[in-house]
Amino acid sequence: MKKKYKTKFPVARIKKIMQMDEDVGKMAQATPVLISKALELFMQSLIDEACSETRSRNAKRLSVAHLKKCVLNTEQFDFLRDVVANVPDPSEKVEGDIESNSNQQDGDLSPKPERSSSVRGRGRGRGRGRGRRRKSNEESD
């Protein structure tokens, strides 16, 4: 049984985006609602095509590569080709990983750049960065 989601795009935000254009004057109240519905239908067709691509590869998760393949193979999404042109193919990513590993095994001792999260030593665990604020020196005196 297929789940039916009742997702709606925010009409007020669509209206604000449309009014940011100087050429757009007054618009009918139904215009942002119709744009919202058109966006829902577009996203539904894009996701359906990407899901079928994901299933054809026997993958469990939809990835960027699946969306890229969907855009390149479906004529309906030709206008998105320039958007997905910079997305690396998964085969290129694997070759790049193998190449970087072989360089390090050959005696390349160049230091790896550290992530900012590993420098601080904080992960995404429960409750980090939430709760009571610590008192600073000025507040504690």
From TrEMBL:
Gene3D superfamilies xrefs: Histone, subunit A (1.10.20.10)
| Residue ranges annotated for the Transcription factor CBF/NF-Y/archaeal histone domain, each copy included | 8-71
Keywords from the named record: DNA-directed DNA polymerase, Nucleotidyltransferase, Nucleus, Transferase
Under InterPro entries, the record lists: CBFA_NFYB_domain, Histone-fold, Transcr_DNA_Rep_Reg
From the record, what ranges are coiled-coil?
A: none
Q: Where is the composition biased (Basic residues)?
A: 121-135
Residue span of region Disordered:
89-141
This protein is called DNA-directed DNA polymerase epsilon, subunit C
What GO MF annotations does this protein's record show? DNA-directed DNA polymerase activity
- Localization (cell): Nucleus
Q: Which Pfam families match?
A: CBFD_NFYB_HMF
Species of origin: Basidiobolus ranarum
